[in-house]
Amino acid sequence: MIAYIALVLATGVERIVELVISKRNAAWAFERGGVEHGRGHFPSMVVLHTGLLLACIAEVVLLDRPFIPGLGWPMLVIALLCQVGRYWVITALGPQWNTRVIVVPGLGRVTRGPYRFSWMRHPNYIIVAVEGIALPLVHSAWITAIVFTVLNAILLLGFRIPTENRALAALDRASSGSTPT
How is the chain split into domains, by residue range? Predict the structure, then answer.
């Protein structure tokens, strides 16, 4: 259990590192005329992702969830691969990566890294969804995995992805010189 708590805390530290990168990239974007979209849903994302980490620990400790090797080890590998995937996304987007939706006029879409695959418009969200299942299941916190997955789907599909798609569509229109009708 101690090793699992350390894993979850390390994931929390990683999220803080992401926030530092995000803040730096937001400043970069705003200096170049970046426009933020969807500010209203961002606090919900912060609460959900913080809640995931807290719930992982709480469920394991309070409900005395066991470590089941046949489940835990594969989920650990998947959770760690998700971290690799996150940094693949962050590296591919460079200064355009952010935890918020900020679009810089004049910059085109990124087409390197996981973004070179046309079928994968939002690779980071796929990674987050997989991690939201894998991290809790490392120590059989199945309630957390289910609740996070449902809430994350509502937030992503209902708010975040439509907001990002609208922002990117506006960027595409601006890049092509066309105006909305």
Answer: 2-176
